[in-house]
Amino acid sequence: MALEVKNLSISFPHLRVINNFTYQFNQNGLYLFVATNGSGKTSIFRSILGLIHSKNNGITIDDKPMAQMRRSVFYYESSNWFDINMSGMDYLKLIKTQWKSNVKINAVIHFWKMENYVNKSIRKYSLGMKQKLLIALYLISDADYLIMDEINNGLDEDSRKKLLKKLNELSQHKCIIISSHYKDEVYPYADKILTIKDHEVINDNH
Ligand SMILES: Nc1ncnc2c1ncn2[C@@H]1O[C@H](COP(=O)(O)OP(=O)(O)OP(=O)(O)O)[C@@H](O)[C@H]1O
C-alpha cells in the first residue's frame, strides 16, 4: 500500500508554486512538511485530493487513481470549512457514516473531553474547540491516509502534546502527512521530513 505522486506541478496564473514533485508515501509513518509561508504546502495537499487543478502523471493509492480511493484518505483543511449552524455531533455522525468507520464516537468525544459542547452549534465554539473537533473528524474517519494541514494550530501546549502522542500511535499503522509551524515539537515524531525550496520538494532528513 502506498500513496504515490508522480511529476506533480502546480501553478496559478503568473505564479509557479511546485515543480515536478514525485514521491511515495508508504502505508505507515509520519511525514512532516516544513517550509516557509506561501511555499505551497496547502497547494500540494489540495492537488493530491484533486481539489485544485495540477499537472501530474498520476496520483494513486495502491496504483488506483485517487478518485476511486477517496475513502482511504481523510483531509479536512481547516475549521473555516465548518458550517457553524451544525454541531460537532452532526459532523462526527456524518463522517462516521461516510467513511464507514467502526471507531466509537463516544471514545473520540472522551479523548478530547468534548462532552460539554459537542451537541452545541459550532458558532459557540472557541478556536481550540473547533480545532479539537477537526482532529476528532480525522480520528472518527479511521482512514488509512490522514492529510493534516497545520493541524496543531490553535491548540494549547498540553493538547498539542496529546495530539502528537496520538499521531505517533496512529502512524504505526497509518500514513500521516502533516504540515506544522511547530516543527520543533513534531520533529521527534517524524519519520520523514520534506521541505520546499525554490519550488522543489526535497527530503530534509536532519
Ligand atoms: N487559488 C489560488 N490562486 C492564486 N494563487 C494561489 C491560490 N492558492 C494559493 N496561491 C498561492 O500559491 C502559493 C502557495 O500557497 P499555499 O497556500 O499552498 O502555501 P503554504 O505553504 O500552505 O502557506 P502557509 O504556510 O502560509 O499556509 C502562495 O503564493 C499563494 O498566494
UniProtKB/TrEMBL annotation:
A single GO molecular-function term is:
ATP hydrolysis activity
Which keywords annotate this record?
ATP-binding, Nucleotide-binding
Instruction: Give the SUPFAM superfamilies listed for this entry.
Output: P-loop containing nucleoside triphosphate hydrolases (SSF52540)
The record places domain ABC transporter at: 3-206
Matching InterPro entries = AAA+_ATPase (IPR003593), ABC_transporter-like_ATP-bd (IPR003439), ABC_transporter-like_CS (IPR017871), P-loop_NTPase (IPR027417)
An example Pfam family from this entry, by short name, is: ABC_tran
Report the protein name in the record. ABC transporter ATP-binding protein
**What taxonomic lineage is listed for the species of origin?**
Bacteria, Bacillati, Bacillota, Bacilli, Lactobacillales
